[in-house]
Amino acid sequence: MTSILSAIPSLSVLDPEARHVLDLGRQADAPPFEAGTPQQARRAYDEGFPDLQGEREPVASVSERTIAGPGGPLTLRIYRGQGAHDADTPALLYLHGGGWVIGNLDSHDEICRWFANMAASVVVSPAYRLAPEHKFPAAVEDCLAVLSFMRDAAGELGIETRRIAVAGDSAGGNLATVLSLLARGDRVRLTAQLLFYPNTDAAQTADSYRRFGEGFGLTASTMAWFRDHYIRNVSDIDDWRASPLKAESLAGAPPAFIALAGHDVLADEGEAYAGRLEEDGVPLVLRRWPGQIHGFVSMGRHGPAARQAVAAAVAAWRGFDPAFGKA
């Protein structure tokens, strides 16, 4: 496996769409999230993400429902893709990014729609509890509860319990990796983990925090702000449920697809996690977008890379499961 260090592009090959998004950010001249409160960050994020999102394409159906969660009611958005079977269809639990502090069902709606249609599947996306109001491991507990619901309600949802995968981006990718490890002992295992630039090490000491810590969208200081709102105390940094890279073994985890952005503070820890998976014998598809920045899968309005990454994830998912999509 090629090290990210040997694959780092020069700044001259930053993709035009990534450069354009960075230019838009500089023109907006908005204060960084860490300059305000979590509530202010959420408002700013909610105002800004519609200008980045790709097309919210039609799906066969979208519905919302509330289930009982470990900390109270949990809202889920459920997508049935075009071409999905009425029963025994593949299903995906999609966990949105946002540093465990921001993000919601709307901020990643287009990605869920793409997954639903490209895979002719059912996608379930939860509004898991956010920090700092609900610190680690509240989000992990919520995601486990949603996975349990999907299995228990498989007949009602029209999904096949043996065809459930998990996916997520950034902090959602962190939660997806943790869920994948926690589910290793389950009688019915996950079929895949589909990860976009996942956060895997809360220590935040990788060299990419130095190389791309400023000027590429997500900064090192913003990442520290997110992390410090999420964890209860410094000892949580070494808890593998916050830092899956620190897990003693990754053996037995479901097959993994990982998409990495070259100009990203999380690049090295994503690369390191891919290396650990490979060492522990977990089937792996690793794709790099060298000229992209963190969050590019949520920037579909400004170029094709977002949809391309989701299409690559779906192709990997199909490849991991020979019975994928067969009624």
Structural class: alpha/beta
The DSSP helix count reads 11
Specify the overall morphology: globular
What is the count of distinct domains? 1
- Secondary structure: number of strands: 8
Rg estimate, integer Å: 18 Å
Q: Examine the secondary-structure arrangement and name the CATH architecture.
A: 3-Layer(aba) Sandwich
Largest sheet: 8 strands, mixed
Domain Alpha/beta hydrolase fold-3: 92-297
Protein name: Lipase protein
Organism: Mesorhizobium amorphae CCNWGS0123
GO molecular function, one term: hydrolase activity
Structure description:
The longest helix is centred in the last third of the chain and has 16 residues, at 305-320. Strands 1-2-4-3-5-6-7-8 form an eight-stranded mixed beta sheet, sandwiched between helices. The protein has helices spanning 4-7, 16-28, 38-48, 109-118, 138-152, 154-157, 171-182, 208-211, 220-230, 267-279, 305-320; strands at 61-69, 72-80, 89-95, 122-126, 159-169, 193-196, 256-263, 284-293. The chain is built from eleven helices and eight strands. The chain is of the alpha/beta class. α4 (109-118) crosses α11 and α5 packs across α7 (171-182).
